[in-house]
Amino acid sequence: MIETARLRLRPLEAGDLGFLTGLMGDPRVMQHFGRVFTAEDSRAWLDRQRARYDTVGYGYWLATERDTGRPVGQAGVLSTPVADRPPEPALGYILARDVWGRGYATEAAEACCDWAFRTLRPARVITLIRPENVPSVRVAERLRLRRQTHVMFGGYEHILFSRARADHVPSASFALPASQRPAG
Fold first, then answer.
1. Order of strands across the sheet with 60-65?
2. I need a labelling partner for 164 at 20 to 30 A (CA). Which of 39, 56, 109, 149 fits?
3. For residue 72, what is the enclosing H or E element?
4. Residues whose CB is less than 8 angstroms from the CB of residue 143 and which lie 6 or more positions away in sequence, other chains included
5. Whole-model pTM above 0.85?
6. Shortest CA distance to 35 belongs to which of 143, 154, 145, 167?
7. CA nearest neighbour of 76 among 156, 11, 7, 154
8. By three-state DSSP, how is residue 124 classified?
9. What's the rounded Cα separation, in Å, for the pair 184 and 11?
10. Within a 10 A sphere around the Cβ of 19, how many other Cβ atoms?
11. Residues sharing a CB contact under 8 Å with residue 63, sequence separation 6 or more, in sequence order
12. What DSSP string runs through 43-62?
C-alpha cells in the first residue's frame, strides 16, 4: 500500500470490479483513453492488472480517500515500451469525475513516481499523454516532468514526458509501509 496526505493506493481486488465498471464506463472519464469500457472490458482490465502484480509486481492500483476509504480512481506504474526503446516505468491514472480539480491526480502520480524511483530505481520515469488532454499535461508540468517528444502509442499521438532519477526529489507526503522501505 502507498499512502499520501489524502490518498491510499492499494492493489486492485475482485471486489473493485463494480467501481471500475462505473469509472471506465464513463465517457467523460475515458475521453482521452480512446474508448469507453464495457463491463467485460473492465473485468479484463482488472484481470490484467492482477496478472501484472504477479509478473512484475506492480500495475494500476485502486486510489481511495484516506479519511473515508471511498474509491476515487486508479493510479499506478506500468512497464511500457515506447517506439524502439525497452520498457520503462510509466505513470498513469484514471480518476472519477466527481473528484476532478481536487489535486488527486497530481498527488497520486507523484506518489507513484516516488514509488518507482525508490523501488524500481530506473534511469527515468515517463508518462504518455495525448496532446488534447490539457488537464493531464498540466499535471505532468506540476510534477516537473520534462516534455521530451511526440510518439505514437496505442494508435494515438502522445507527448512523452519524463523525469530523470537525478532530477527526482522524494515527496515528503509519500510513505511506503515499513516492509517496503529500502534499507539504509
1. 2-3, 7-11, 60-65, 71-80, 88-95, 124-129, 156-164, 146-153
2. 56
3. strand 71-80
4. 106, 109, 110, 113, 163
5. yes
6. 154
7. 11
8. strand
9. 26
10. 19
11. 7, 8, 9, 71, 72, 73, 74, 75, 93, 95, 104, 108
12. HHHHHHHHHHHHHTS--EEE
d(C-alpha 137, C-alpha 143), whole Å:
10
What is the per-residue pLDDT for 173?
52
What pLDDT, in 10s, does the model give residues 51-101? 999 999 999 999 999 999 999 999 999 999 988 889 999 999 999 999 999
Given a cut of 60, whether residue 166 has pLDDT beyond it is yes
Does residue 179 carry a pLDDT above 80? Answer: no
User: What integer is the mean pLDDT of 145-173?
Assistant: 89
Hey, is 79 helix, strand or coil?
Answer: strand
Let me know: does 82 contact 88? Beta carbons within 8 Å. yes
Residue 130, C-alpha cell as written in the block: 495525448
Alpha helices in 25-152 (DSSP H): 39-55, 104-115, 134-142
- Degrees, nearest 5: CA angle 40-46-52: 135
Q: Are 89 and 126 in contact (CB under 8 A)?
A: yes
Cα Rg of the chain (Å, integer): 15
> What residue has cell string 473493485?
16
Domains of the chain by start residue, with CATH: 2-169 (3.40.630.30)
Cell numbers linked to 117? 524511483
